[in-house]
């Protein structure tokens, strides 16, 4: 059984500042549970209480706190140094492409894909003749880059949800979205026509923090690597 661990640093606990690990809310957080435990991360009891209003939690290690934020915000917290370490999907990293972020570990969880989907029965040749196309998505940068590489200008309608409604309601020709099983697409009359990129969750690190606190962050990277090998 994993045992709670304590800091071994020489700096007095009263003056040392805990590292912050940013974690995504929702489905991925549930998948992360066993990996966090194997890494020796045991957050406060109310961390797992969905009714808790707290967003920052102490852990069994006095030198590590965790924050619970929206999946799209994890990368921003880490890039701007509010958190030194984080866990987020490769889709988020692709969308924001922050140079301040280093992503050393693929955690192999949260498997899905960023894909193009369009109304079922729409002739495949139609899009090949277009110079521009209407795209509903929460990934405007990914969508624009993807279609630009094919010589197509993407007219993006930025939505944060319910992308599947957009083509039927005249907002766009197609969508770019995360796909796991494809059941939601099917239920809304869409078909997946192209996979842009596979997605898994990654452990990410702020590059400046890695330079200024190499021992502390390196120790956590080692713990996560060991936890992945023990899976």
From TrEMBL:
Pfam families: HisG. Pathway: Amino-acid biosynthesis; L-histidine biosynthesis; L-histidine from 5-phospho-alpha-D-ribose 1-diphosphate: step 1/9. Its main location: cytoplasm. InterPro entries: ATP_PRibTrfase_cat, ATP_PRibTrfase_CS, ATP_PRibTrfase_HisG, ATP_PRibTrfase_HisG_short. SUPFAM superfamilies: Periplasmic binding protein-like II. It catalyses: 1-(5-phospho-beta-D-ribosyl)-ATP + diphosphate = 5-phospho-alpha-D-ribose 1-diphosphate + ATP. It is an enzyme of class 2 (transferase). Its EC number is 2.4.2.17. Keywords: Amino-acid biosynthesis, ATP-binding, Cytoplasm, Glycosyltransferase, Histidine biosynthesis, Nucleotide-binding, Transferase. It is found in: Cytoplasm. Catalyzes the condensation of ATP and 5-phosphoribose 1-diphosphate to form N'-(5'-phosphoribosyl)-ATP (PR-ATP). Has a crucial role in the pathway because the rate of histidine biosynthesis seems to be controlled primarily by regulation of HisG enzymatic activity. Lacks the C-terminal regulatory region which is replaced by HisZ. Heteromultimer composed of HisG and HisZ subunits. This is ATP phosphoribosyltransferase. It comes from Pseudoroseomonas ludipueritiae. The lineage of its organism: Bacteria, Pseudomonadati, Pseudomonadota, Alphaproteobacteria, Acetobacterales.
């Amino acid at each position: 059984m994993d045992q709670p661990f304590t800091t071994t640093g020489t700096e007095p606990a009263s003056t040392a500042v805990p590292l912050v690990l940013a974690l995504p809310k929702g489905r991925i957080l549930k998948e992360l549970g066993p990996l966090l435990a194997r890494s020796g991360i045991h957050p406060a009891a109310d961390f797992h209480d969905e009714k808790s209003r707290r967003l920052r939690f102490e852990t069994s290690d006095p030198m590590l706190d965790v924050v619970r934020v929206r999946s799209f915000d994890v990368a921003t917290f880490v890039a701007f140094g509010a958190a030194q370490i984080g866990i987020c999907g490769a889709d988020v990293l692709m969308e924001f492409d922050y140079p301040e972020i280093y992503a050393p570990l693929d955690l192999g969880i949260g498997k899905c894909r960023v894909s193009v989907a369009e109304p079922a029965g729409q002739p495949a040749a139609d899009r090949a003749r277009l110079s521009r196309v209407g795209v509903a998505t929460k990934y405007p940068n990914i969508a624009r880059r993807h279609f630009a590489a094919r010589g197509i200008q993407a007219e993006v309608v930025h939505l944060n949800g319910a992308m599947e409604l957009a083509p039927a309601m005249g907002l766009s020709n197609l969508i770019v979205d995360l796909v796991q099983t494809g059941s939601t697409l099917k239920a809304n009359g869409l078909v997946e026509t192209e996979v842009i990129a596979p997605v898994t969750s990654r452990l990410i690190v702020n590059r400046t923090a890695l330079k200024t606190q190499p021992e502390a962050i390196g120790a956590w990277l080692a713990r996560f690597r060991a936890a992945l090998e023990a899976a």
